[in-house]
Amino acid sequence: MSANVNTLLEALPYIREFHGRTVVIKYGGAAMRDEELREGFATDVVLLKYVGLNPVIVHGGGPDITTYMERLGMEVRFVEGVRVSDPETVEIAKMVLLGKVNSDIVSRLNRHGQPAVGLSGEDGTLFEVRAHPNAEQVGFVGEVERVDVDVLNHIAEDYIPVVASAGTDREGNSYNVNADTAAGKVAAALRAYKAIFLTDVRGWLADPGDPGSLRSRATVNEVVAALGEVEGGMRPKLGACIEAIGGGVQSAHIIDGSKPHSLLLELFTDAGIGTMVIPA
Ligand code: ADP
Ligand code: MG
């Protein structure tokens, strides 16, 4: 019993500090893997809203997109952590992201008592997307060029915005957008207090093969210096941390979303988990 009271007392200064603050949460992959984790995530986000934070969710849906592509007999390929996307891939990605992943997150948040609104880059002209610099290799992979946060601010007054990382360019071509990159841009555009990236590893590892090599703290300059060496899905994630901090976000966190309630532990306990990226 007293341990529970202590946990609440420990949380109190954080609740006070974060009241009214915007937190952008990138949700994807591992934290969506099973029913228990999905329910845990929804409970955590709803709790954040109840205690006065302003959570904004940006999500991917990589594993689900892969599952549906494989069911359709389509080839799944990645270059430097980016999904190679021909027009058919983009079509499936969009259908899965919006029709399945987004609506599942929204309905869970609704059920837990905080109504949510799902949207993608097209809604309210949230994202303007342009082709990735490496378009020759990766196809219709987009980069978010501009974020129009007006729609998010309106929604966030009463609802939890849940953003699927897809968008179109000025000509109306659809693109697959890396959700980490999109979350970094959204956090910067909103001038969020924090950006939190849920992933399937403890954080940024100095040696990707060694879970004991966690970089628990890094300045944005240290991340910039190391980025060239980082591979796979961690590269866009660290790039997004750089983007967020550059946009005025106070700290960006990469945490293990495969651990239940990692979001609450990161925000409301003294024991920081994962990697924290700070301005200097
Ligand atoms: P998500 O975007 O869903 O969090 P990703 O697979 O895109 O997942 O990115 C996380 C992955 O990045 C890890 O599972 C790991 O395989 C890979 N990775 C590559 N280099 C590193 C590194 N230095 N530290 C941690 N993870 C790394
Ligand atoms: Mg990823």
**Estimated structural class:** alpha/beta
Order of the strands making up the biggest sheet: 5-8-2-1-11-13-14-12
Helix content: 40-55%
Main sheet summary: 8 strands, mixed
Ligand species? adenosine-5'-diphosphate, magnesium ion
Note the beta-strand portion: 15-25%
Total strand count, please?
Answer: 14
Note the run of SSEs as H and E. HEHEHEEHEEHEHEEEHEEHHEHE
Overall spatial form: globular
Work out the helix count: 10
Low-pLDDT windows of residues: none
List its traits.
four-stranded mixed β-sheet; alpha/beta; 43% helix; 23% strand; binds magnesium ion; 14 strands; binds adenosine-5'-diphosphate; 280 residues
Question: If you had to describe this structure to a student in words, what would you say it looks like?
Answer:
It is a single chain. The chain is an alpha/beta fold. It is built from ten helices and 14 strands. The protein has an eight-stranded mixed sheet with strand order 5-8-2-1-11-13-14-12, sandwiched between helices. The longest helix is centred in the middle third of the chain and has 25 residues, at 87-111. The model has no long low-confidence stretch (mean pLDDT 93). Bound molecules: adenosine-5'-diphosphate and magnesium ion.
How is the topology of this model organized?
Elements: H1 2-18, E1 22-27, H2 35-50, E2 54-59, H3 62-71, E3 78-79, E4 82-83, H4 87-111, E5 116-120, E6 127-131, H5 135-138, E7 141-147, H6 150-158, E8 160-164, E9 166-168, E10 174-177, H7 179-190, E11 194-199, E12 217-219, H8 220-226, H9 234-246, E13 251-256, H10 262-268, E14 275-278
Parallel strand pairs: 1-2, 1-11, 2-8, 5-8, 7-10, 11-13, 12-14
Antiparallel strand pairs: 3-4, 6-7, 9-10, 13-14
Helix pairs in contact: 3-4, 7-9
The chain binds adenosine-5'-diphosphate and magnesium ion.
Adenosine-5'-diphosphate (ADP) is lined by residues 28-30, 62, 81, 180, 199-201, 204-205, 208, 230-234.
